[in-house]
């Protein structure tokens, strides 16, 4: 069964790599590089302003580590059909689940290295210790994550719901204690304590002579993959994500403002799809809210403007796939409307939505920046929207049609 997991894993990775070329496109990578550079510069300047005895440094680092620990679920790659076809192999599933647990450690390990690496400068400023302690911290958090995954593996079996809840609560308490010991005593003591905790949970989560809960495993795996597909769906269409349409009668007033004439045919269709389709309206609202919250926390004009510009780009980029939303409907091909008009309609809709977002971002910036800086931010965003709407969108549509 270990070989069977490896076979499924290869198919899963092949599928994910197919989607990654859409997620890690040139534009997104470039924007992320600028964002990371801006965050690094802002973080560096912030650390220089902190006093040597900054008492909140260790609590912030500990909270960040504790927050990131639960990230990463157990990968089983169980499919609904397995409840029938693999059921006879149930006694051999221990090796399968152990293989899944080992693979599940990869993403948390990379995430832990990243988060600890980011937080180490704050730790050094707050304590005066050296960066060499990063090795102990990574090992300590990785051991705690392993114990967390053993609990998730135990959940795959029947009749352990109450025990699983108790162990999860105990794990959170133990993890918080281990992190506190590592930060406020010595990293070596915290790592030794993490080893004891890991050994305890490894023994406590053994599910000997218990039957697997196949339906629960299939549901957990479906839920895990759905969250991954939701992220990928921000960049490209994913067949596994079913589009949901809601009536939203309260938005009919916006559609009524579109005049009834031939040149607005596609504008009406695009706007109606954007408002009623949960994947587009939800995406738009989420990015606007996230952008508003980020800008509200920033007092640096250049950094706040960079974040706003990034969100404007992401919102517009996610709206471009609307162009082909109705191509599968045959009677729309009979519309006496040219492709040029269709493209102009999409441009007009995207520009309208981006202008609304820009005004919201500039309005939020007023709470932290001066009126002059807020107006300057709005002017920069308007220039970006003009370039995006009238240069980038046509080029992107042309690439889609090729």
From TrEMBL:
Transmembrane residue ranges: 21-43, 55-79, 100-124, 130-148, 169-202, 350-369, 375-393
InterPro entries for this protein: EcsB_ABC
Keywords carried by this UniProt record: Membrane, Transmembrane, Transmembrane helix
Keyword Nucleus: no
Origin: domain of life: Bacteria
Cross-referenced Pfam families: EcsB (PF05975)
Record's keyword annotation contains Membrane: yes
Protein name (record): ABC-2 type transport system permease
Source taxonomy: Bacteria, Bacillati, Bacillota, Bacilli, Lactobacillales
